[in-house]
Amino acid sequence: MSTKAGVVSNRTGLALAVGFAAAAIFAAPASAAIAPATTDAAAFVAKGSVGEAYVTGATEGDNLILVNASGATIPESDANLSTDSKGSKVFREVTPGTGYTVRLVKDGKVFGTAPFKVLAKDENPSQSFYNAIKLKAGLNYVTVRDGIKIAMTVRPPLGVSKAQFDAAIAAGTKYPTFIEYSGYQTAAPGNLLDTFLNPSSAGPEALLPASSTSVGAVIGPLLGFAVVSVQMRGSGCSGGAFDLFGLPTTYDGYDAVEAVAAQSWVKGNKVGMGGISFSGISQLFTGGTQPPHLAALTPLSVTDDVYSGTGFPGGIFNKGFAFSWISQRMDDAKPAPAGGQPWAKYLTANDPGTGQPRDQQCLDNQNLRLQTINSNEMIQKYPARESRIYSDRSPGAWLAKVKAPVFLVGAFHDEQTGAHFTESLGGLKNNRKVWITLQNGVHADSLGPSTITRWAEFMNLYVADRIPKVSDLVISFSSLLYNQLVEAPSLPVKQSRFAAMADTSANRTAAKRVFERDPRVTILMDNGNAIAGKPGALGATWGVAFKNWPLSSSEAKPTTYYFRSAGKLATSKPTASNGTASYVADPSARSKQTLTGAGEADSWKAQPPYHWDPIAAGKGLGFTSPTLTKDSLFVGPASANLWLKSTKGDTDIQIAVSEVRPDGKETLVQNGWLRASFRKLSTTKSTALDPFPTFLAADKANLPTGQFTLVRVPVFAFGHVFRKGSKIRVGITAAGGDRQIWDFDTLDNGTTTNTLSLSKTKPSAIVMPLVPKWKVLSAPGATAVTKLPALPPATALRGQPSRTYAPASNGG
Question: Which of 184, 291, 545, 665 is the right S-S partner for 794, CB 3.0 to 4.6 Å?
Fold first, then answer.
């Protein structure tokens, strides 16, 4: 965590938990013994959660026994049965049911709790449970279904003080409302908006929300929304134990939506959700629980799977961003005031005037924090995908259950979460009200000027039920704010196309009809090339549109480019009966990352200090096409189909698709990775363009010795026009050297030689998603564009490093 311009900041966005294997620390129960009968009532308290049970108020070191309704003990194979120094304990992976108790044998007696229920998924409280919850402006503590108290801060719209807000509630005023749900410092009750508009009144810096939650803390109030910032359990001042995207956390999202929607001051008794990164991903889980009063979702910069998306791309552990992000979340989950987030430290510290904690509830909510699982210690234990661990923690699986309208934005070159999130978008096919925007760019770009106005239109039409209008403050200060947050110039934010319409029922209906004629899928192109003379400026001037994602085979035609001798890439098959190309898999031959030092912050700049190393001699292969005679658009994932032979039983493969430009520069387009032993593919999910490894331990197999084996390497989705006069290049190396802040825990060390077959019977190739027919469309809010703009400068495209082209040692 860093600070910038006096604002608490967390720019790590959200890469996502690699170590959620840790949540499944319990093996299948062995045959259970019958527990001793209770003789005395326990002094501690036990309650049930969703698939869990927890204990508070015990004595440190008590050896507790979880007992089911039949009196049998529920054993834990790997866990410490004793309570921690706060007298707390969480039992995980408990079968839902009634009649559970927790017992303690001590001093010849058997102490037991009252029976309780362990909840199942979708076992939701009645409406009366939510109707009893009352929220006021500022910090609130809300009891969710399992008895844990969650911190929620109500932020009134701009210009409405807390006193005015509470008075307006009493007078029956209704406010359009959305929720931002995050594990970052989101419910801290300070006013982040004041740091921009009136810095002298901002209050203690420790109480400011993280700038990564500015969608709720800044943008929402600026646009006239009331926002409820919900703090994820086990972080900040919320109670519970941190277990990222465990079932209790997921259903806290449901409870938050229903609790907020039940407030008398919420317009229409329906709420939306907003946020980028962590608070974008949490929306996928919450939406998948289908809260009845959820109006809409707006997830920005998300991931779809905590294993294959970010934690283990291609089955290779991401020890860079993913590992560091988990470490930060573990620090955030430490009990305050000794550890944890700044606002929790501040509120649990003693008030100098009274000697008492400033917020006793926040202090009490730290009691389960020592039950947080250290995921970084567990990731090595589960290097393959374990369904029982990851299924409920898969954002993409929950997204497929969402019924509410969705406005989703993501970047193909997101330096934190990557582009694997596109694999989940097909799950929205049966949801009629979905608008997806994809673009080249980095993590922050989802909030860029080419998308923010349509985001505001969507939120106003589907959550606020009013004619959209973008705040004059947002328009006036947008360029300044973007330059401060991402250190890049930007296109100006445009006013809504509907702003001049009177806010009547008929006009709202008409505006929705216009909005719903927008393309379901928009691909913004050349983000970074919007302002002449300012390469890397935030924004796009043009794009292309499609009916759905993934694109159909007629929209994106699978087109095969074969690897040929002398490093050639051709659409015709090899004719020779033999032919090979070899390289040494040596990750040390290139820098591990294209950015070092600040890294994450640098990647958002207009001109990041990239060092994208060339393919070292003998340490990789390059295959380059002839000069293109026409502009060629590719949209979607690709498949590198390699006939591979290796001197080792296993090896890690990295694919780099790039554009070799007429000016002698080369621009990275996209990457793909695979550990060869994970080459077995799902037979139900894989296509010609999209190989889908299972990543299951049972499917893992070493390469056969001395023979060529087909290995299909998935290449993440991209949208890119290779201009006339350029060349397509495919590079094959050891893992690493192409990503800003990802770092691969590769098994290669420079002693493995990999050989590709280039023969007519075993032709190695890449299958690319060529779009045969496409039309240049103006980007939302941009000046009208009717034809393809000229080739951007080599350093203009956001998230895509460039270098001077140098042929690989095999000639390509």
Answer: 665
Strand 109-112 versus strand 40-41 pairing type: parallel
Q: Return the bridge partners of 228, or none.
A: 154, 179
Query: 634 - beta bridge partners?
Result: 720, 770
Write the pLDDT tens digit of every residue in 670-712.
999 999 999 999 999 999 999 999 999 999 999 999 999 999 9
Q: Which residue's entry shows tokens 């947002």? A: 474
Cβ atoms of 747 and 741 within 8 Å: the answer is no
Q: Cα angle vertex 270, ends 269, 276, to 5°?
A: 145
Contact present, 352 and 359 (Cβ < 8 Å): no
- Rounded CA gap, 338 and 343, in Å? 12
Name the residue with tokens 């234990």.
381
DSSP for 657-705 reads EEEE-TTSEEEEEEEEEEEGGG--B-TTT--SS---B---GGG--PPPT
Question: What tens digit of pLDDT does each residue of 234-248 get?
Answer: 999 999 999 989 999
CB 724, CB 630: distance < 8 Å: yes
SS3 753: strand
pLDDT per position as a tens digit, 235-283: 999 999 999 899 999 999 999 999 999 999 999 999 999 999 999 999 9
pLDDT band for position 462 (cuts 50, 70, 90):
very high
Question: What's the pLDDT tens digit per position in 141-160?
Answer: 999 999 999 999 999 999 99
Structure tokens at 171: 């007078």
Name the least confident of 2-11, 35-44, 93-102, 732-741: 2-11
Mean pLDDT in residue range 213-237 = 97
Residue by residue, DSSP assigns 246-300 as: -HHHHHHHHHHHHHHHTSTTBGGG-EEEEEETHHHHHHHHHHHT--TTEEEEEEE
Q: Which residues pair with 732 in a beta bridge?
A: 621, 655
Give the C-alpha separation, 282 to 261, whole Å.
18
Give the span between the Cα atoms of 680 and 45, in whole angstroms: 48
**CB under 8 Å to 480, separation ≥6 — which residues?**
none
* Interatomic CA distance for residues 694 and 308, integer angstroms: 10
Query: What percent of the chain shows pLDDT beyond 70?
Result: 94
Give the list of residues 6+ apart from residue 525 with CB closer than 8 angstroms, or none: 439, 440, 540, 542, 543, 544, 719, 720, 721
- In order of 86, 276, 300, 718, 775, the CA distances from 281 in angstroms are 31, 8, 8, 21, 32
Phi/psi of residue 347, nearest 5 degrees: -80, -20
pTM of the model: 0.95
Q: Which of 523, 539, 543 is nearest to 531 (CA)?
A: 539
User: Residue 28 — pLDDT band, cuts 50, 70, 90?
Assistant: very low
Give the span between the Cα atoms of 31 and 499, in whole angstroms: 67
Amino acid at 271: V
Cis peptide before 176 (omega within 30 of 0): no
- The four Cα atoms 347, 350, 355, 356 give a dihedral, to 10 degrees, of 50
* pLDDT reading at 7 higher than 50: no
Residue indicated by tokens 């049972």: 698
pLDDT at residue 326, rounded to an integer:
86
Strand pairing category for 2-4 and 7-9: antiparallel
Q: Which residues of 236-252 are buried (b: 16+ CB within 10 A; e: fewer)?
A: bbbbbbbbbbbbbbbbb
User: What is the C-alpha to C-alpha distance for residues 265 and 171, in angstroms, rounded to an integer?
Assistant: 9
Each residue's pLDDT tens digit, 288-310: 999 999 999 999 999 999 899 99
Q: Which residue's entry shows tokens 């959209």?
A: 468
CA distance 804 to 791: 16
Q: How confident is the model at residue 600 (pLDDT cuts 50, 70, 90)?
A: low
Element (H, E) at 453: helix 452-459
In whole angstroms, what is the distance from residue 451 CA to residue 485 CA? 16
Amino acid at 650: D
CB atoms within 10 A of CB 649: 14
Please state the length of the chain.
812
